[in-house]
Design goal:
Blueprint lengths: L8 H25 L3 E8 L4 E6 L6 E7 L8 E6 L7 E6 L7 E10 L2 E6 L5 E3 L9 E7 L9 H8 L3 E5 L10 H12 L4 H7 L2 E4 L2 H4 L13 H10 L15 E4 L3 E5 L23 H13 L4 E5 L19 H13 L5 E5 L5 E6 L7 E5 L18 E5 L4 E10 L2 E10 L3 E9 L16 E5 L17 E4 L6 E4 L3 E6 L6 E4 L11 E9 L10 E8 L13 E6 L5 E12 L9 E8 L2 E3 L7 E7 L3 E6 L2 E7 L11 E4 L12 E9 L5 H6 L8
Parallel strand pairs: 9-10, 10-11, 13-14, 14-15, 15-17
Antiparallel strand pairs: 1-2, 2-5, 3-4, 3-6, 6-7, 6-8, 9-19, 12-13, 16-17, 16-18, 19-20, 20-21, 22-37, 23-26, 24-25, 25-37, 26-36, 27-33, 27-37, 28-29, 28-36, 29-30, 30-31, 30-32, 33-34, 34-35
Amino acid sequence: MRLRNSLPITTILLVFVALLTGKESDQKNKNNSQQNVGPVVGHVDSESAYLLIRRGAISQRLRLYISDGTNPSSFQTFEVETKAEQDYVAKFEVKGLNPNTRYSYRIVSVKGKAETPLAEGKNCTFKTTSKNRKKGAVTLCFTSCVDIEDNPMWDDIKKVRPNMLVLVGDTPYIDSSKLEVARNRHRRFLAMAGLSELAQYTPTVGTWDDHDFGLNNGNGRNMKSGKKFTRQAFVEYRAHSQYGTGTEGVYHKADLGLIELFLLDPRYFSQTTASVIDPKQPTCFGEKQWEWLKESLKASKAPFKVLASGAIWQDKKNSETDDMFTYWYERDALFDLIKKENIPGVVLLGGDIHVSRHLVHPRRVGYDLHDFVISPGHERTITGLDVYHPSLRWSLVEGHQFLSLSATIDKNGPKLTAQYRQSGDRLNREVVLSFDQLSAPKRNKGLKRGLRAHWAFENTFTNSGALKNLLEMKPNPSPEGILYRDSKRGGVARFDRNLQQFLNVNRNPLDDNSDRHTYALWFRPSSLPRHGTTDRMFLIESTAEGKPHNKSAWHISLGLRSCDDPNKINLQLYTHTLSPASRPEAAPTAKSLGGFDCLIPRSELKKWNHVTCTFDSLSLSLYLNGKQIAKHHLPVPGPASEFGGLVIGGHREGKGRNFDGFIDDVAIWSRVLNENEIKKLQKRDSLK
């Protein structure tokens, strides 16, 4: 029905509904603007504490009283005037405190001489941290991805009684660059039952990830106009000692004696300028954060250092680019710094992906680098992000998870205990690490330096390199007949092509995205690919996962094939490198390179030969019996793309293009050997 000279009834109804909805929204925002928050104890160290409180949307004078309990009549007072431009949040900076001391506090509203209590009682307390790095105990609890809803996890965190609660991003979900929306979400988040009580007496700090930054997969470029508003709300509702540079970013750190916590900001500066590490690539950390982190890490005296970021440190393997794999050059420069400066006790922590994971990157910083991912704090999981990674040790796709990290010292020295916990008093995984395990061992010299793997096949398939039993070699289809005694070389591996025999190594022996390495082996073929055929025989090739796999992940690939010359054989190399992002906000991609050909006389391969290949991100160099026979420049320079394991005596799928003959002394280094070292490999016992 339509009235004459009037709008359609449906239009009138829509306008009416919109007006009602708008009024309801305005009323909701008005109600939210009155939301009380706190008190929240924020950053606490040995001599200072930071607190915040909000009581409605009014300007008022608030007074904080602090007492250590030794003398009830002795206290310090601090006053703050709340203002609209800070959303009426009162923030107190308390200095001159004593280390390792329990303080009580009360907050009142002051009008003339009258005081109205706002916060007081048994929960209004906090304890300063200890300066002592040689005794004591400290516990931090971490969680990420928490929505504004009832959550039993907070009660479980209370039972742990942590010295600090750390919110590692998406805490809360905001997904807007509007200041009032961000403020409302922060207010409601901190007012949630459970968290609001916990934060009264537990120092609570954090960093952000994409959703509290304001945009899914958000970065400094696509949030260029909005990040100043989400940062403003973050600063208003976190009681930290530092907020990035003071005007940009939110990175900061907290020293708890046995643990120093570095809360990184992977969002604000990302994609905004060129990287200080690689000017051809976009930055993640930004120059000032990079310098702050580098100098702070080198200066840290804490036994354990936690590098916490909302983003994870490895590839999410989805369409998003908000992980540290996207900025591998800055990530790896950080790891290289830790290794070069011999900084002990470093562990990684991330969130974001709605899956909890534990990864261990072997010897990445001179010692094993433990990588803890804790997510989600709510109950919504993402199974598709529980992806393969060669360093993955454990994962759990369930909700309401948090992680505790506890540092203690006993007669054996400092110890770090990580516990993956869940609501309902569930302990899902525990990892105990001694300080020695997080310290670089004395470096080997000579050819043993950087030697990750060495299989000599002396009656066993065990690895004598630095990674030892972490690299498990499995013969296929069975071990029968593979171990063999050669009259000249002693123990060797023998492969019968007709039986499709090969050896499978379960892990990548190199660093993720290794930029420099060497691999070498001895071989003597029983037969060669026939001239005029497409037959191929692989000596060694990397696989996508820790088992034979058809996916293209052949960063290490060395094989034999026929060529046009009937008297020669092609000793052919392939590799996979990381290709730089093709445009802003894109991820690097794996790029297949090769084949790189090198023709040698067939007659030379009737005996034992030693082959070495070095990789330096710019070229592949091939050596035969100690002499360089080829140098192949990479058309797409870059480090190794991800791979998960090795096939020796065959190609990545295991069966199909197997080697026929003998292989010995397979060795892999996490560095480029020089020519003199490569010549030394010609000696039978050079690696003993």
